[in-house]
Amino acid sequence: MKASEKSAPGDAETDNTRSLARCRHATAGIGPRAAATACAALALVLVLAACGGSPERRTFGTFVDDQAAELTIIDTLYSRPEFDERDHIKVEAHNRTLLLAGEISSEEKKALAGRLAGELKAIDRVVNELAVMPPVDFSDKGSNSYITAKVNTRLALRNPIDGREGGRVKVMTARGIVYLMGSVTRAEGDAVAEAIRDVRGVVKVVKVFDYID
After folding, report:
1. Where in the chain does DSSP place strands (E)?
2. How many Cβ atoms are within 10 Å of 206's Cβ, its own excluded?
3. Pick from 42, 129, 196, 203: CA 20 to 30 A from residue 33's CA?
């Protein structure tokens, strides 16, 4: 960056303030506790960025929109009478792509969940991986969390993406199926998928990446 292009003192602080204000606005309708959680997560990312440690390829505005979308769709789904304790829906959003995974009790509910997710203004693409089946029991949920932890550990120790860039990969597990999200090149995405295929408990790897090449 040329000297003439450098930000004036206080510009970064102003941008961060605007990002936090946007978070508060975007999460205004989902309840104070959920909104506080989303904005706290954003604040952490802003701190990491200020320290030069942020691996994000998303803009701060998109990050805010993704966090708000996750909270909004869960609140929307479970506030409707069609969804109940038989439905176990997991949500992740990255760069305006929303992933729905887990178990749901009917094809009609699966379609409804996908349609409601698609109505979110901050979402351009919905990947509906909900399985029509009875919900998994508590031990299976614990197993999914354990697999996710092992995959994240593998990527932390033996990441095929150089430097801090591997931190942009988001991991979700449902029924042993590992879903990978993030902003990567196709070569990076393939390398990450191959790196975690042999993690014990992984049944299948599904790439839901936002490709940048």
Report:
1. 88-94, 97-104, 125-132, 170-174, 177-181, 183-184, 204-207, 210-211
2. 16
3. 129
Q: Which pLDDT tens digits describe the chain residue by residue (213 residues)?
A: 433 333 333 444 444 444 455 555 555 555 555 555 555 555 555 544 444 444 556 788 888 999 999 999 999 999 999 999 889 999 999 999 999 999 999 999 999 999 999 999 999 999 999 999 988 876 777 899 999 999 999 998 888 887 555 567 999 999 999 999 999 999 999 999 999 999 999 999 999 999 998
For residues 149, 209, 158, 48, the Cα torsion angle rounded to the nearest 10 degrees is -80
Distances (CA, A) of 171 to 94, 136, 181, 211: 11, 19, 7, 16
90/70 Cα distance (integer angstroms): 9
Given the candidates 3.30.300.130, 1.10.260.40, 3.30.240.20, 3.40.50.150, the CATH classification of the domain at 138-211 is: 3.30.300.130
